[in-house]
User: Which sequence fits this backbone?
C-alpha cells in the first residue's frame, strides 16, 4: 500500500474520466437522441455527488434518480438548466419538487391528478415525465390507464409532459421477443397521447439498435462499466477499482481448515493470505469458495467463508515471501471486472456496485486529470 494509506484497509478508486467517456460513447451510438444519466442509488454506489457533476461538466443535462431525497441532494450540485427526474414518482414530496425544480416521473393516474392539482394551485405549468408500462408491471400506467388518459387528455391540464417513458424487461437479451413487443406497445400507446419526446432505452436497450433510441437514452449500469452486452466483449470502459490490504500471511498444511464452519479443508502445504474486506463491505458471502482476487498479478482463489471484515485467499501459487502484510489485493480491477466478480457471486454487476461498502476509502479520478478523496 502507499505510505499515505496508513490506517486504510481498502481503497475504492472511481474513474470519473471513464464514466464521462462511457456517457460520450453511448451518446455517439445514438446521435439523434439525447443521452441522460441514471444516477439513482448514489450513482449505483459510486457516489452521485461526484458522478453527476462530472457528467454535467461534460454536457449531460438530464438525470434520473429513484427517490425525492436523492433528487433534492443532487439539485444544488447541478446547473439550474439540468433536469432531475425522480423515477419513483411523487412520494408525497410534490411541494419540495415544485420548490426545488425537481421533475417527477408520474406513474399512475392518481399521480397525474395530484400533479395537475398542484399546477392549478400554484398557477404554473409543471413539467413531468409520464411512465407508460409496457410489460414490467412494476411502475407506470398500464394499458387500461393509458387508454383512459388518451380518451381524456384534459387530465394533463397544467402539466407539461416532457417525456413519455417506458422500461424494457429483457433488454440485455438481444433475441428476446419481449423487446419488439414492448417497443410496439410503446409506439402504439404514445401515438394516442399528446405529442412529447419519448424514452425507452436503458443501457442494454441502447444496444438493441436505432429503433429503440427514440429521443432520450436512460443508461445507468453501462456508465459505470457494467457490460450492457452480456456474452460479448464489454464495449464500456472500466470505472471501478478496489484494492484491499493484506493483513496477514500464514503457512498451512493438511489437515487444517480455514475460517468459519471449517468450510475450507487444506489439501497440503500452502499459504493463506487474509485480506481486509468482507460482507460488511459488500463483498458478498456467496463469493466464498468461488471468488478470485489478484495479488501482484497472480490469481488467488477465495477459500472458506467470507467473514464480516475479512476474506481468506490461497496464495500458494505465489513464491514464498512474494505476498507480505501491507500488500494490496485487487478485488475489482483490470484483471477482475465487476461482471466477473458478479459471476463469482452468482449475481449481476448492478448488485456488486450498489453493495460497495461505506468503509472503503474512496478516491475519485476526475476528468481534469487530478484526483480527490472523500472520507
Ligand atoms: C434503473 C433504470 C434505468 C437504468 O437502467 P440500466 O440497466 O442501469 O441502464 C433506466 N430506466 C429506468 C426506469 C430505471 O429504473
Assistant:
Amino acid at each position: 500500500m502507499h505510505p499515505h494509506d496508513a490506517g486504510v484497509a481498502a481503497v475504492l478508486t472511481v474513474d470519473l474520466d471513464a464514466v464521462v467517456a462511457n456517457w460520450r460513447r453511448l451518446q455517439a451510438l445514438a446521435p439523434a437522441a439525447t443521452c441522460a444519466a441514471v444516477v439513482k442509488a448514489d450513482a449505483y454506489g459510486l457516489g452521485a455527488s461526484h458522478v453527476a457533476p462530472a457528467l454535467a461538466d461534460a454536457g449531460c443535462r438530464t438525470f434520473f434518480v429513484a427517490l425525492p431525497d436523492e433528487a433534492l441532494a443532487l439539485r444544488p450540485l447541478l446547473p439550474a438548466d439540468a433536469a432531475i427526474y425522480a423515477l419513483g414518482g411523487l412520494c408525497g414530496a410534490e411541494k419540495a419538487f415544485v420548490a426545488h425544480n425537481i421533475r417527477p416521473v408520474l406513474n399512475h393516474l392518481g399521480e397525474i391528478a395530484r400533479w395537475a392539482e398542484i399546477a392549478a394551485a400554484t398557477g404554473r405549468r409543471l413539467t413531468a415525465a409520464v411512465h407508460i408500462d409496457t410489460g414490467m408491471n412494476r411502475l407506470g400506467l398500464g394499458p387500461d390507464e393509458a387508454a383512459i388518459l388518451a380518451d381524456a387528455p384534459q387530465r394533463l391540464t397544467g402539466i407539461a409532459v416532457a417525456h413519455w417513458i417506458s422500461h424494457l424487461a429483457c433488454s440485455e437479451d438481444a433475441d428476446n421477443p419481449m423487446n419488439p413487443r414492448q417497443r410496439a406497445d410503446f409506439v402504439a400507446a404514445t401515438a394516442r397521447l399528446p405529442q412529447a419526446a419519448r424514452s425507452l432505452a436503458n443501457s442494454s436497450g441502447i444496444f438493441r439498435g436505432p429503433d429503440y433510441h427514440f429521443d432520450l437514452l436512460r443508461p445507468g449500469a453501462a456508465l459505470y462499466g457494467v457490460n450492457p452486452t452480456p456474452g460479448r466483449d464489454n464495449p464500456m470502459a472500466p470505472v471501478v477499482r478496489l484494492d484491499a490490504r493484506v493483513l496477514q500471511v500464514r503457512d498451512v498444511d493438511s489437515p487444517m481448515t480455514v475460517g468459519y464452519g471449517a468450510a475450507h479443508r487444506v489439501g497440503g502445504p500452502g499459504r493463506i493470505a487474509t485480506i481486509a474486506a468482507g460482507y460488511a463491505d459488500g463483498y458478498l458471502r456467496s463469493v466464498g469458495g468461488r471468488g478470485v482476487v489478484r495479488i501482484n498479478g497472480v490469481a488467488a482463489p477465495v477459500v472458506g467463508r467470507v467473514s464480516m471484515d475479512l476474506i481468506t485467499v490461497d496464495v500458494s501459487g505465489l513464491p514464498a515471501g512474494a505476498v507480505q502484510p501491507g500488500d494490496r489485493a485487487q478485488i475489482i480491477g483490470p484483471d477482475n471486472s465487476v461482471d466477473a466478480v458478479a459471476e463469482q457471486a452468482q449475481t449481476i454487476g448492478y448488485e456488486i456496485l450498489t453493495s460497495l461498502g461505506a468503509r472503503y476509502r474512496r478516491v475519485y479520478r476526475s476528468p481534469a486529470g487530478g484526483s480527490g478523496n472523500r472520507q
In short: The chain has a mean pLDDT of 95. The chain is about 25% helix and 25% strand. The pocket of pyridoxal-5'-phosphate is lined by residues 38, 40, 87, 167, 202-203, 218-222 (CB under 6 Å).
